[in-house]
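CHAIN AND CONFORMATION:
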Amino acid sequence: MLCLGTTDTPCEITDYPSPSTEDVEFILGEVKNYLSSDVQVRRGDVLAAWSGIRPLVVNPNKKDTQSIARNHIIHVSDSGLVTIGGRVKINFQ
C-alpha cells in the first residue's frame, strides 16, 4: 500500500474539505513516473482519499503558494511579541 499526496491546490475554506477529481487524477498520473512500466495504476485502485487545509505564512513578494518557503518564520514586533509560523510537517511510514 502507498500513501501519496500533493499540496498547494487552491480551495475554498470549508469545514469538510475533499480532494478534487483533478488532484486524484494528477497524483495517479505522477505515480506512474515512479513505478515499473508494467504496473498499471487506475482510479479503482484508490482505497481512500482525503484532504485538509493547511495555513501558510503569506509572503507578499511571492505570486502563489508554491513559491512560499517551507521554512518557519520568526518575527519579533516592536512591542516584543514573538510570532512563529509556517513549516511543513510531513509524515511517512
